[in-house]
Amino acid sequence: MSDAAKCAELVRAQIGDARVDVGLILGAGLAAIADQVDQAIVIPYDQLPGFAQPAGEDQARLVIGLLGSARVAIFRGRANYNEAGDINAMRGPLELLSLLGAKSVVLTSAAGSVRNDINPGTIVTITDHINLTGLNPLIGESGRDRFVDMSNAYDRHLQERFALACSQLGRKVHEVVYMWLPGPSFETAAEIRAAQALGAGVVGMAIVPETVLARRFGLRVLALGMVTNLAAGLRTDTLTSETRMRAGAAAASSLARVLAKFFEIWMVESRVIR
Description:
Layout: H1 3-15, E1 22-25, E2 38-44, E3 61-67, E4 70-76, H2 81-84, H3 91-99, E5 104-113, E6 123-130, H4 156-168, E7 173-180, H5 189-198, E8 202-204, H6 208-216, E9 220-230, H7 241-270
Parallel strand pairs: 1-4, 1-5, 5-9, 6-7, 7-8
Antiparallel strand pairs: 2-3, 3-4, 5-8, 6-9
């Protein structure tokens, strides 16, 4: 039995036949969103076979419960490529979602803005991405499933429903292209100029490997960025991880409200997120 299948059995033993509508992966500083869940069942990552433990995260856990009217599997803790050099660090959570019957996943991440009109505190929806790293989590797989179509990797219908949720709550949302620069060092000013020239609106260290894996497992993707900082060349102060974490934490409750409204809208529309 695969690690993912073992995880699915373990989770089913705790939630029974309850349907998991959607997955939610939380980015840096956004962990507090998991505290908004009702009827929560909590499983630490170290109890889930094959789950990578995020560096410096001693409370990484899977939280399953209600956010709005949707039953959500929230992954509170993300293992990034830049921690251990494992491009497949988030394969376990995404494969588990598919085995639990979820059809969609919401990816969230802190992001740096490369545009002067997108300021810290802004929520962005990611419509496409740029990956010039040469890295891909499907390299090394056998069989034809590794040839994944990425032409519509980010689901337009989900983006429209999220925009409606933002509108109903009086929040503005920008649509952007995300450029993946895996870090862990922050970007140089020259790299940001290149990102601007290529049409990116934000840069970040996550999202892209997860999107590829999500599509590999047949999940529809809504990817959201919470802008925590202006990128190099657009700011004069020194950027630190602590600065980004504080900005993300300050925005977490706002993003949680929008996500709850988003789930409410779509669950009313379709009764189950598909």
